[in-house]
């Protein structure tokens, strides 16, 4: 058994506003379903949605997870940056330096993301949302490879990356040391292919930890991966 990556979910003070921003940047439409919050349909080959769940959490540090958006040309990169700024993004300094060829921005709630320069071979063929770049250990890359059934496509010098067999967005981990918990961040959400409780037990056997002992009101179970990042196993969809 395995889990499907159902959504990459943002902690959001204003889910509707944040969904409007990302819909405008990415050109993704809103999903019409019973998601607890707001969700956007990606059409991405990796098969996930973007979710925006209401949360009172306060952002106290740089996010551990962020998106890398790709560009086909310098003009395309500039257009993406301009569109994001028009929608409410701001430039962000995460130590990239003045000579960086990628552009670092933050959305209206401070979530960082990068607009990557053209010609990036690692993200070639991944689509507009080239990567979900995560701060994390090699062990957590192995964990998610086993959890999702996505093969490793990079495993060198403590850095790992996985990708759906169907292609699309890669999920990458940059190796230690880990950044502090930012408080407000992005989280992965999974829909099991079978019995959710059986899938929870499988994830626990792979190294996950249970964060709440009982099912939540929406039927989801909250777990943490081996690096301590929260994720949700949803009821079967």
UniProtKB/TrEMBL annotation:
InterPro entries, per this entry? Glyas_Bleomycin-R_OHBP_Dase, Glyoxalase_6
Annotated ranges, domain Glyoxalase-like:
8-116, 132-234
Name the domain of life this protein comes from. Bacteria
Q: Where does the sequence pass through the membrane?
A: none
| Protein name listed in UniProt | VOC family protein
Q: Name one Pfam family in it.
A: Glyoxalase_6
SUPFAM superfamilies of this UniProt entry? Glyoxalase/Bleomycin resistance protein/Dihydroxybiphenyl dioxygenase (SSF54593)
In its UniProt entry, the species of origin is given as Streptomyces pseudovenezuelae
């Amino acid at each position: 058994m395995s889990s499907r990556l159902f959504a990459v979910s943002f902690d959001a003070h204003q889910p509707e506003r944040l969904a409007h921003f990302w819909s405008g940047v990415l050109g993704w439409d809103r999903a019409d379903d019973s998601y607890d919050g707001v969700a956007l349909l990606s059409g991405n080959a990796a098969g996930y949605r973007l979710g925006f769940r209401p949360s009172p959490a306060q952002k106290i540090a740089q996010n551990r997870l962020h998106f890398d958006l790709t560009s086909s040309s310098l003009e395309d990169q500039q257009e993406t940056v301009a569109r994001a700024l028009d929608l409410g993004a701001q430039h962000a300094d995460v130590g990239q330096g003045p000579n960086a060829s990628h552009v670092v921005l933050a959305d209206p709630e401070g979530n960082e993301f990068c607009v990557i320069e053209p010609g990036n071979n690692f993200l070639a063929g991944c689509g507009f949302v080239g990567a979900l770049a995560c701060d994390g250990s090699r062990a957590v890359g192995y964990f998610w490879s086993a959890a999702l059934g996505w093969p490793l496509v990079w495993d060198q010098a403590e850095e790992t990356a996985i990708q759906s067999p169907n292609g699309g967005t890669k999920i990458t981990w940059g190796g230690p040391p880990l950044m502090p918990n930012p408080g407000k961040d992005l989280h992965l959400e999974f829909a099991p292919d079978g019995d959710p409780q059986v899938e929870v037990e499988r994830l626990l056997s792979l190294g996950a930890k249970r964060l709440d002992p009982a099912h939540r009101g929406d039927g989801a179970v909250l777990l943490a991966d081996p690096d301590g990042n929260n994720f949700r196993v949803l009821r079967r969809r």
